[in-house]
Amino acid sequence: ADADAYFEAVIAADQKIEPRDAMPDAYRKTLIRQIAQHAHSEIIGMQPEGNWITRAPSLARKAILLAKVQDEAGHGLYLYAAAETLGVDRADLYAQLLSGRQKYSSIFNYPTVTWADVGAIGWLVDGAAIVNQVPLCRCSYGPYARAMIRVCKEESFHQRQGFQSLYVLARGTERQRAMAQDAVDRWWYPSLAMFGPPDSDSTHSAQSMAWKIKRYSNDELRQKFVDMTVQQAEVLGLTLPDPDLRWNAERGHYDYTQPDYDELMRVIKGDGPCNRQRMANRRDAVESGAWVAEAAAAYAAKRTAARQEAMA
Amino acid sequence: ADADAYFEAVIAADQKIEPRDAMPDAYRKTLIRQIAQHAHSEIIGMQPEGNWITRAPSLARKAILLAKVQDEAGHGLYLYAAAETLGVDRADLYAQLLSGRQKYSSIFNYPTVTWADVGAIGWLVDGAAIVNQVPLCRCSYGPYARAMIRVCKEESFHQRQGFQSLYVLARGTERQRAMAQDAVDRWWYPSLAMFGPPDSDSTHSAQSMAWKIKRYSNDELRQKFVDMTVQQAEVLGLTLPDPDLRWNAERGHYDYTQPDYDELMRVIKGDGPCNRQRMANRRDAVESGAWVAEAAAAYAAKRTAARQEAMA
Amino acid sequence: MNEDVGYLLGLADDALIASHRLSEWSSQAHDLEEDIALSNIALDLLGQARMLLTLAGEREGAGRDEDALAYLRDEREFRNVQLVELPRGDFAVTVVRMLFFSAYQAELYLRLEAESGERPDLAAIAAKSLKEVAYHLDHATRWTVRLGDGTAESHRRAQRAVDELWPYTHELFETEGDLRGAWLARVERVLAEATLTRPADDADRFRPTGGRSGVHTEHMGYLLAEMQHLHRSHPGAVW
Amino acid sequence: MNEDVGYLLGLADDALIASHRLSEWSSQAHDLEEDIALSNIALDLLGQARMLLTLAGEREGAGRDEDALAYLRDEREFRNVQLVELPRGDFAVTVVRMLFFSAYQAELYLRLEAESGERPDLAAIAAKSLKEVAYHLDHATRWTVRLGDGTAESHRRAQRAVDELWPYTHELFETEGDLRGAWLARVERVLAEATLTRPADDADRFRPTGGRSGVHTEHMGYLLAEMQHLHRSHPGAVW
Q: Which GO terms describe its biological process (chains C, D) (predicted)?
């Protein structure tokens, strides 16, 4: 009861819960699920953009893309480390990704069809991620909040790079401009869907808000993203593919068409265009690299044994 | 002794030895070795040109190339069938190719570096093959002679296609012309080496000539090829990479620089640029397709069993 | 784009890309006879693609010939179904895909041949191709049965190929829905003889689509890079 | 071509193509740490390639920048050694190739750095790259030892990689023969610690060559098709 009171007091005071603090089981479980899903998203998210590394149209863009995909792997590492402070093991989380029991962001189940998709992901997908993640920097769980500060800083760098890449395309040849517009047309609604189901259907939100893991509802975040993105689209000179998108002076926000949540559910359930491919790639990396992990372990064991013998 | 006399008489009369005829063991062995090597060459020879099928620069050229590589597989089939009339099994010959005990033409151990190499192979390599093979249409062993008639007909078609392909390049853009010349520069000496070591070093030739398997010596055939090719090179407007190539009125032939026979020996021994790759590809096709062959056999066995049961 | 041109490009690209994947078997088949057979089918499909591309170019009237259409269109302009662009895979994938695709082509070309009044040029191409397609279908049928009813391993591989490819077959009938009944009848007969299980349609909500409007799998770009690189490296050259 | 330009292109292309093969590991490594490490090395090598290409373009004085040189040269104009263009292979091939190549780069860059009087620009690039190369070499060394002295399977794979790649190392010293002694000393030490056998030089007459004069293995064309296709598909575009 003391522990519960302490937890409630910390949350109420907007202070951080730290790994050694007592915390309700449900809080711990919710965080593990969310952080793991976030980490998995970084890892799977390497694939759609990584798809263009060997084909990037200039060496400067290739370097930017290589570094970005590498950053995503780094984000995965911070986040798995944050999850581990909650008493789980990265290997177990990883196994749950591979078995399909834990999810990753559905956005990464869409294919990168052209080079412009790399820019559109940077602009829209990283943009949506940032809107989602900035409030997480104030999340009540300390290690997660600190990981998010680092992630957000890099993400906003990526988002600017994506924007800049699309900007160049939008001002390039007619074919480049068409490529940029086409990418925005395909990524807009999936990006809106990244904020999850509408608040009316969102199951976990209320409790997460009470625990100050979440600070805003799905629909609030989605609206924030729309408002921000409309203005950036104007700078780019590209059109968002929503004929009903318009300023609502009364609300002080843009009205917009909701994404297809049935499609979102289908993709979450595993039936998006690339779910099978993404998981198969991941499993293949693990399986075909198993002998490397075993070799490293065997070598480490030999070294340990040799050291022990030397000391005996 | 009767058998020997019959064999000698047939050879002397320029008639054909047929599968059921008695023949000296050494004659049989020589033929098996030569026909198998020839068949293997067709099969391995599919690789360097096949390397360009998916990248052919026009659909018409792609179709020609696909058909040509397919013809080479067909030639392999005729030739293995001819060898089988001598009492060997295709599977055994194949195993000897894979184990490296039987050879194939060393020319196929050079890489096809550009598209023009496909044309150069058609013109020079098929050209050399034809010079080698036309006399084999009169070879003393019937099945081999008949297979060669069919092979030569198709090869000369391929040779014209190669010539025509180079002709177009030689009259194309500057880069195409350079590509054609470069290919001829790289394939000329290896093509000369296709006729084997000089007569002074040729071990099998004398006996093969006596048996009327071979009709001309290596050097005679090489000279014939040079004389023929010089004139075709003029039509193409391409230069053969031999500064000492010139008409010798006294001999009534072109003088030319001999190929590097040390290099030829190195390549024959397995150390050419692509020997390992060609053999690895072949082994991989056999190994990774073993389950298919097993399935076909298992299915055939089931069908046979079912038929027998039905009749029992 | 003219609707008819788009339709023709769909047929042409199906054949072109299917041919490309088959041609990847050159020197890789488990025996010589099969190497020849697969090249033969690749060659037939390439021939169909050339006739169809040429016809599409004529219909379009913008001066694009078969090579301009094959080599100078970008990925988003290719109209083939995703089924044909999936990686080559093992021999089971090749055989099962050929079964699904040839059975579709057989039904489609039969109908196009019958509609010769409406589109005589296309009907002529269909009529010319039907004999080829019948051979492809026969070849795929024999091998599907051999693999399905061969060894335990070949059965496992064949069933896996059926399960993996089945979702992609729905795209074949998005615009040709009336052909699916006849297609199913053909395919089900073969799968049954091969002791393979036909996946249920509703059990599988994964129905990839997009090829006909130029949205392809991530495999397509690599295929086109390989196919087009040389041609694009020499703008305006004649080969 | 100016001899110096050709020399610079050799160095640049070595780094560019090595970087390409390493970047093929993206999302494919056995764990995240290694995925990051390999990307890092790919990124370093790409950076070296860009500086070297830019310098080569300046020396040439024909207005070609790093992209013109990377994307618009044909295969026969690439000067890299064949070692770096061989297919990615398994992790053992990657590690052993990195060992051989980094040890070579380390010796070469050390010498170039020392020759700053003759070629100050190149010496500056070498100096800047040496720290990176030291890290690559260290990484390759640690993994070679782990694989060689790990499990029976990892030993077998590592030895196979050493045996397959060794013949290609001779090309590194065709024009830099004086570096081979120091290179051998480095490499032999690592192989010994890894319980791997160093192939004898004379037992192996297979010494592939040609890369420095633009004659490449058949793998190179596919790599370039992939790398260059998009750039070549948009002549004159800015990215």
A: phenylacetate catabolic process
